[in-house]
Amino acid sequence: MNSGKSTLSVELTELLKSADHIMPIKKGTFLFQEGMTARELYIVLSGRVKISKLSSDGRELSLRICTRDEIVGELTLFSEDAKYIFNANVEEDGEVAVINKDELERKLFENSKLAFEFMKWMSDHFRKTQTKFRDLVLFGKKGALYSTLVRMTNSYGVPTEKGILIDLTLTNQELANFCATTRESVNRMLNELRNKGIISIYKSKITIHDLHYIRAEINCEGCPAVFCSIE
User: Fold this and answer.
1) What Å distances lie between residue 89 and 26, 31, 73, 107, 210, CA to CA?
2) Domain HTH crp-type: where (predicted)?
3) Which of 6, 112, 173, 209 has the fewest beta carbons closer than 10 A?
């Protein structure tokens, strides 16, 4: 499916030309961590980067997974003494283009078309975040899990004879981090779905056999996949 995957516009692709350098990224490391001084933004060229935030009690809330052509660290723009407000954890080896924050701000001031494209891109990401928090607030743990599964089918879904395979390896703890809940709660809800034949799990990958059921359970509004994704 992968219909939720966005690509950079011609204008935003120009950002790559202003990159200071290309940097390799290694699984298990951080591009940046919450509270660090923000001096750079990154465009993911390959690999995978997870954006997350720690709660006051130390629990992790995963917000999105960034893959090719995604911008990371964008929320620090136009802020004095800016600090990163999220963590960017490298989940898969790859490369990123490194862009100086001050240089990008200057280009956005000078190039109105680039600024407009960047605003549209930011608006899309804000809408994705808003819908995710809406699901968490309105539908609780069950709704958070079910909406996360829907988002993952839009981002990583592969049609098969048996249903839609979410082609992303996740532990139950990692899935719980996307739902702001515990691994035990996710285990229980996944087992309920398996017993009903709604999903199956093989080698840490989930196949959705009845996506309609999951959507109906959370009164899914059928938002465009570009807004209903995990990326």
Assistant:
1) 9, 6, 12, 28, 32
2) 139-212
3) 112
Cα distance between residue 88 and residue 62, in whole Å = 10
Token reading at 139: 């539908």
What residues contact residue 162 under an 8 Å CB cut-off, 6+ apart? 200, 207, 209
pLDDT along the chain (231 residues), means of 10: 51 71 94 91 92 80 86 78 90 93 85 83 74 68 87 90 91 86 91 95 93 85 62 62
Element (H, E) at 128: helix 112-156
Residue in the block written with tokens 């802020």 = 79
Domains of the chain, earliest start first: 10-110 (2.60.120.10), 130-227 (1.10.10.10)
Query: In the 8-state DSSP scheme, what is residue 12?
Result: H
Query: What three-state secondary structure class fits 225?
Result: coil
